Each structure stands twice: as structure tokens, then as C-alpha cells.
Amino acid sequence: MFIEVFKSKIHRVRVTQADLNYIGSITIDEDLLEAANIMEGEKVQIVNNNNGERFETYTIRGERGSGVICLNGAAARRVQVGDIVIIISYAYMTPEEAKDFRGTAVFPDEHNRLVKGVG
Prior knowledge:
By secondary structure, this protein is mainly β.
């Protein structure tokens, strides 16, 4: 049996762009993806702290060091530029694996940049 457990999150980043006419997904600064152990193309849940929306999409690698958090396609309708979101990924594992697994949490600054010594 497998269970779905928290794998990683990017906690409280600010939406920098919303592009309705893009094919879909969320573009995330490559520094944040790496720090959070989230792969390009990985399914993620987006939680919008400003309006309570929760939805799923997949990730696209954004320019390293840019701080970009861009919701694309239909997901762009669920956010406003400036909204604070949490990006969460999950993994399937056995209950035995889950007992010892520790997820990764990244806490960027107000400009969506990594903060040394935090995360």
C-alpha cells in the first residue's frame, strides 16, 4: 500500500505574473525549485492565501535568481499579481518509508529570493 505525504513546499511567495494566454502551469525561479526539491514538470498544489483558492498544476523552470512566480493559462484566473501563495508537492511512499521521511520547506524573502540559513 502507498500513501500520499507532504514532500516539499515553497512557503509564502508573491505572485509576480499571471499569463492567461500561456498553455498552463506555474513558472518558478529555478533557485526555489532546487531548494525545495521540486522537479520541472512535477505536479504541485497551489494555495492562495489571499482568496483561499486551492488548485493543482505542474511546474516550469523560471530564470534563476529572478524571483519569478507566474501562474499560466487557466490558473492565472485564480490569482492576482501580488497574491501570496504556498506551493506544495506530495509523494507516494509506503507507510514504512513515510515514518522516516522528512519533507523540505523553503521560506523565501519578500522578493521570492532564498534567505541564507533559512529553509
